[in-house]
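Reviewers of the previous submission asked for a worked example of the structure-prediction workflow described in the proposal, so we include one complete record here. The input consisted solely of the amino acid sequence. No template or homolog information was supplied to the procedure at any stage.
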Amino acid sequence: MKVLFITGEFPPMQGGMGDYTRQLGLALADLGCQVHVITSDQAGPVDRLTVYPVVRRWNWGCWRPTLRIIREIQPEIVHIQYQAAAYGLHPAINFLPWRVRRLGKRRPRLVATFHDLRVPYLFPKAGPLRRWVVNQLARGSDAAITTNHEDFENLGRELSPSAPFLIPIGSNIQPRPPADYDRGAWRARWGAGPEDFLLCFFGFINERKGVDTLLHAVHRLVTDPSCPVHPRVLFIGGQTGTSDPTNIAFLGRIQALISELGLEPYVCWTGYIPEEEVSASFWASDLCVLPFRDGVSFLHGTLHAALAHGMPILTTRPRVHLPELVPGENIFLVPPDQPHALAEAILHLAGAPELRSRLGMGARALSQQFRWDQIAADTLKLYRTLSLPS
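From that input alone, the workflow returned the following structure tokens.
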């Protein structure tokens, strides 16, 4: 089967959607698919995938090269990876399916994966029209995929009586440390001594991630003279990514907060590092803290990376019931936006190494439900249900 992905970002651009597209493309190639990718002109080649880095800006002008390539290679499936920020918040990609449908009887079948349901900008005071534009991408496609329970329910209500499909994402970082990995040396690299309790946060800095809550919690601990824990915070990976300009502004606020709270001696940033160094940094840490403001969700590739690395994870209660998460077995949950509760949980887990070990083993076991071979098999199965029009 010939599959053409369309994605606003792709490696070496920094972004979870681009990494997802690469991982899914390679897994589909393992299943015998011919995988092509239309993407931004900042992208590079990937072995076993045919990459077309032909789009400079994702405005209405992106239709011309996209339609040209669709006509040239004649894929059976055109699969749009959607996240509004990856397309510069422009709505052109949302209406592309309606244009592809005009190609005639032998047009490809259209699939859209919604990596989140954030809306494009359009124009000031666009209001409900922004949500309508997102829904047009789903309605114009032959199948809509969501990656998590919350979006599945929300998009399902919008599309009723039709329903989206739920196919999860996996970890974009495979657990693989450097050949000479030494935990003590990597802790020292990030400024953590044997007595320090090293907290790690993985992912881009934006308002949804609750980084400010983490910093206020750490401030409570380091300013309490009776606290037996010596916390340090390691921010792993790139800070803002390539696609979302709002991340840069929020990072500035976080850096100002670190200075305001006097936390500079307790915070370290790795910057963008190779995958094996991400693994080494995870395993150098004692606890992964992901205090999502909206509650934990499987839409976050950062959560999947922590699960795959068998990290004990402290995060926030989900907005909807997630049966895969079992508090005390594979996850530790606190309310969102509550620095006091987060600080108490850090203190509790610092004094409970057996609990952290159990959480880590449970996380690694849970990660097996999100393997790329299974994700690709489920995706290919969906493709095959979408027979070409007569």
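The two ends are 18 Å apart (CA to CA). We consider this example representative of the routine output the project will generate in years two and three.
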